[in-house]
Design brief:
The complex is a heterodimer of chains A (489) and B (492). Chain A is built from 20 helices and 2 strands. Chain A has helices spanning 3-23, 28-54, 78-104, 110-129, 133-151, 157-189, 206-219, 231-234, 240-267, 269-274, 278-297, 302-323, 326-357, 368-371, 373-387, 394-407, 411-428, 430-436, 454-472, 475-483, and strands spanning 60-67, 70-75. Chain A is 73% helix and 3% strand. The chains are: A mainly alpha (489), B mainly alpha (492).
Chain lengths: 489, 492
């Protein structure tokens, strides 16, 4: 099978799986088997594509023209490869986790859940491999719409409220700003193809290009830059596997991935460095990092705290992209991967606690480490990765981001990154520490709480392992990240 | 035979209408009307193909030469319109038989089909003819049958709505007639092509200005441009569902066509856009229409009212595209004519399915329909997404060109406002989604079933068209581009 066909299949296959999922909806075991086998095949395809990319093959596919000059086409470049690898691998793990979680929690409408999940993954693949902004935008919108039923899964009025904010912000920003930015780019540059070094002419009016940059950063609502971050905490009403894969990995990473692509392949780092608005957006992202961390400290609901932590971490990626140096871009790309593994583990743990102990508040989790040692150990390690200390993968991405901010003499940004790391310690580490050392005053009454169902436990162990492996063996990720800036054409 | 297509286009439904009287059984009449409308559709398809291949078709009625006889002129613009009208009419008519069963008493079914065909013939006639007075004649045919069709509505409000429309519509038609009369007085001709040749000689006279003003205001009344839209919401809401679907998809489009035809072809571009501050006027009214009507749509409790206001807003988009007065702008307007017909056809036909099952279109009655009528509601959702302008639907295509047109002109704030307008569409569409999917079914309605296939199939034909023409835009974009370029005199 040629790589081109694999590329197309990796987008189509998850969507086709929906048919299988719906057809086997009445037999849960068979239905989950469909999902798992699909994700295995998908992973196989993506891995083969990765091998191809590593050998320097260029893989691209044209579908058809939707509007004159605007083609639905795909092309694999290193950044998309990173994103696709992470998303397809974690889809498999999340499915395993979800089997334990959804059944342990007796959730309704599981068929719809798995079906929408598959569509979401299909659109993530399309987004990752998109060869131009137009294609990317289409899949961006499909991703928003296919995750809406997942966010509102519970069907309660709280879910409806969350869904409103989710869809309201994501659709509004994408239509009002992102689409406008795309049409403006099309008008100014005459092309929407991702191109190394950017598509704008050297003599483009910097004010216009600067305005377009602002539209892009605000318009890519999935990157959750403040003040358009509210959808992410709102999306936490979804079942935990959704929060874990989509709102820590697929959807939010789709946002920062788009930001990175726009910065590197639409503007190009050289142009970006001289735009008048870059500095302003950089400070905005910095403020987003800092404020979200502060808000996270005040959340007692574990998922809400993790959500704000995600907002903050997404700011890192945006900062790295806007620094417009190679270290910044490398740091950003690696952070997409590192944060994905760290945050999905944290969400898995939160879900495991919810299923096994029915607790969602941090203040109720004192001493829970004694009943759920594996879960809380995983939580500890993943927290370290988010903070960015050895022996976890987060170390490397933060290293490059700091390096990038130093190279460009953005000392304010550097200080923000350091303070934020301290804040990360303050809002993440106490959770596992109090879980293991509850102190004397509120000794946790052991009321028969056990570890979460086995599939969930396995899943979270694998992702925790991933955090550590990425520290010891970051080379493949680094190679891909480094290749982003040097790809030809 | 092929040479006579332009007249056959109009004459087939026009002749079929009285013939319906001879068929007594409701089912037979339906079948006959469907065949007539289907024939009109085939003819319009052939015409479009001919025009795209070999340019404008000129047909002299009865062999009389132009200034004396009536002439039919089919160029890309009206070929597109003919296709839209006859296609939508045919698809809607598919569902008619089942839908009117519950909404119109059995003894009036024949009457309904006759009026429907007359209205169709009138609209096709307005579009096909190149004679200004002929336009008025066909306008009256389509309008009079429209008033009667609306009055067939089940509720007594329908009579009042029809009367409102009658008054406003008659004022509009009269204005158009006065305008045409004044033009005739100045030039001595009624043929549009002839008019366009002779008007420039006398264009700086007060009479021509008055003629222009009368025609434009009259047409704007018919197309429900804000603030002349007041007749539309009630007419749409209280007419039988099938009638609403048919008119929402076609009637205002015809009026937009007349606006384009008179400003571009008859009075000419330079007169229309320099003599009066028309550009600014239409831009402001279009934008106001978008926002006022969208906000009004948000607060409606009756879903037909909601979509009726949304239609007024969509007309605002078309008018904004028109006011840009560049080829891209006009292209956006024409695309939106086509695309909006598909959206509103699908949406109102889906409402016909809802009315068939629950007899009401109050938003409060939509609770739980997401589960009970999944296919109908899925159609509403997709139609709604198309209204919002989500990619892969037709709404996105029109929005793309409209925004591009305003940006090309340097009208950045307008581009922002257009996109902001679509955000309001999210709000009103999502009110329906939340009612249908998040509320439990109403008491006593647990055993509600999905709508019958005879309605569902045409609904889904239109829904799929919404998606298909959002993905494969060759037909719509190519025709709209050709039409727009020929109106601007750019040879394609």
């Amino acid at each position: 099978m040629s790589l081109e066909i694999m590329l197309q299949l990796s987008i189509i296959l998850p969507v086709l799986a929906v048919l299988g999922i719906v057809a086997t909806g009445s037999k849960p075991d068979l239905r989950e088997a469909v999902t798992i086998s699909t994700s295995l095949v998908l992973l196989y395809f993506v891995f083969n594509l990765y091998q191809g990319v590593k050998q320097g093959e260029s893989i691209s596919v044209q579908w058809w023209e939707i509007l004159p000059g605007l083609q639905l086409s795909f092309n694999i470049e290193p950044l998309g490869m990173i994103f696709a690898l992470i998303a397809s691998f974690l889809w498999l793990i999340t499915t395993v986790y979800a089997i334990g979680y959804m059944r342990g929690h007796n959730e309704q409408n599981q068929t719809r859940f798995y079906a929408c999940f598959a569509i979401a993954i299909g659109s993530v693949m399309g987004l990752a491999f998109a060869a131009n902004l137009f294609t990317l935008f289409i899949f961006y919108e499909v991703l928003t719409l296919s995750t809406y039923p997942l966010v509102t899964h519970a069907g309660t009025s709280k879910a409806k409220q969350g869904g409103r904010i989710y869809l309201g912000i994501l659709l509004s920003t994408s239509i009002a700003f992102f689409l406008l930015a795309i049409i403006s780019t099309w008008f100014v540059a005459g092309t929407l193809d991702f191109k190394s070094g950017g598509v704008f002419d050297a003599d483009v009016n910097p004010v216009v290009a600067g305005a377009i940059l602002v539209l892009f950063i605000f318009g890519i609502g999935k990157a959750a830059i403040m003040p358009f971050h509210r959808w992410l905490p709102a999306a936490m009403v979804a079942p935990t596997p959704v929060s874990a894969l989509l709102h820590a990995v697929a959807v939010v990473k789709a946002g920062v991935f788009t930001v990175l692509k726009v910065c590197v392949l639409i503007f190009g780092v050289d142009l970006l460095a001289i735009l008048p608005t870059t500095q302003f957006m950089l400070y905005l992202a910095g403020a987003s990092v800092l404020l979200a961390s502060l808000v996270a400290m005040r959340q007692d609901n574990l998922k809400a705290r993790l959500a704000y932590s995600t907002v903050s971490q997404l700011g890192y990626v945006t900062i790295g992209a806007l620094l417009a140096t190679s270290s910044g871009v490398i740091g950003s790309s690696m952070h997409i991967g590192m944060h994905a593994f760290g945050k999905i583990t944290l969400f898995f743990c939160a879900g495991a606690i919810l299923v096994a102990a029915h607790k969602s508040k941090i203040s109720e989790m004192r001493g829970i480490g004694l009943q759920m040692p594996v879960t809380m150990m995983a939580f500890l390690i993943a927290s370290l990765s988010i903070i960015g200390v050895p022996p976890t993968g987060g170390t490397w991405s933060k290293w490059f981001l700091l390096l990038g901010s130093m190279e460009t003499e953005q000392y304010v940004i550097m200080v923000i990154l350091m303070i934020s790391s301290l804040l990360n310690i303050a809002y993440l580490l106490p959770i596992p520490l109090r879980a293991f050392f509850p102190g004397t005053e509120t000794a946790f009454a052991s009321s028969g709480i056990k570890e979460a169902p086995l599939p969930s436990l396995i899943a979270l162990c694998i992702t925790t392992l991933g955090c550590v492996v990425l520290f010891v063996y970051p080379q493949p990720l680094y190679d891909l990240a480094k290749a982003i800036l040097v790809i030809p054409g | 035979m092929l040479a006579h297509l332009p007249i056959l286009q109009v004459i087939v439904p026009l002749m079929a209408a009285p013939l319906c009287l001879f068929l007594t059984r409701s089912r037979l009449v339906w079948l006959f009307a469907l065949i007539a409308s289907g024939l009109a559709f085939v003819i319009s398809g052939l015409l479009l193909q001919q025009v795209m291949e070999s340019g404008t078709i000129i047909y002299e009625l009865g062999g009389w030469e132009a200034p004396w006889g009536i002439e039919y002129r089919i160029d890309q613009l009206n070929a597109l319109l003919l296709l839209i009208i006859s296609a939508l009419s045919t698809v809607v008519l598919f569902a008619a038989q089942t839908s009117i069963e519950k909404e119109i008493p059995a003894d009036r079914h024949t009457l309904f089909y006759i009026l429907y065909l007359l209205s169709l013939a009138g609209m096709l006639g307005i579009v096909a003819t190149a004679d200004a007075f002929n336009v008025f004649v066909f306008l009256e045919i389509s309008s009079l049958s429209a008033y009667a069709l609306i009055a067939l509505g089940k509720q007594r409000c329908a009579l009042w709505a029809s009367y409102q429309y009658l008054i406003m519509g008659t004022i509009g038609a009269t204005f158009i007639l006065i305008g045409i009369g004044l033009m005739y007085q100045m030039t001595g001709t009624l043929n549009m092509y002839d008019l366009s040749q002779r008007l420039p000689e006398v264009e700086n006279t007060r009479t021509v200005f008055a003629a222009f003003a009368f025609v434009i205001v009259g047409v704007c009344l018919k197309l429900a441009l804000f603030p002349l839209h007041l007749w539309l919401p009630n007419a749409y809401a209280y007419a039988p569902s099938i009638v609403t679907a048919f008119f929402a998809a076609t009637a205002t489009k015809v009026a937009v066509y007349l606006l384009i035809r008179f400003t571009f072809s008859v009075f000419g571009l330079s007169f229309s856009f320099t003599a009066l501050p028309l550009q600014l006027l239409f831009l402001v009214l279009g934008l106001l229409g978008i926002f006022v009507a969208s906000f009004a749509a948000i607060y409606q409790k009756n879903v037909k009212h909601l979509f009726a206001y949304s239609s007024i807003a969509q007309i605002g988009y078309m008018i904004v595209g028109f006011s840009v007065s560049t080829t891209t702008g006009l292209m956006a307007t024409l695309l939106h004519l086509f695309n909006h017909a598909l959206m509103k056809g699908a949406l109102f036909l889906a409402l016909a399915a809802v009315v068939y099952r629950i007899g009401s279109v109050q938003l409060s009655q939509f609770h739980g329909l997401g589960r009970q009528m999944p296919f109908t509601m899925a159609a509403v959702v997709i139609g709604g997404l198309s209204l919002i302008g989500v990619p892969l639907t037709v709404g996105f295509v029109s929005k793309w060109y409209l925004v591009l047109a305003t940006i090309e002109n340097g009208w950045w704030p307008v581009a922002v406002l257009i996109l902001a307008g679509s955000l309001l569409a999210i709000v009103y569409v999502w009110r329906i989604v939340e009612a249908a999917y998040f509320k439990p079914p109403l008491d006593g309605r647990e055993s509600l079933n999905e709508a019958p296939l005879s309605i569902l199939v045409p609904v889904w034909i239109l829904v799929i068209a919404n998606l298909y023409f959002g993905i494969d835009t060759r037909l719509s974009v190519e025709v709209a581009q050709a039409a727009s370029q020929s109106l601007f005199g750019v040879s394609p």
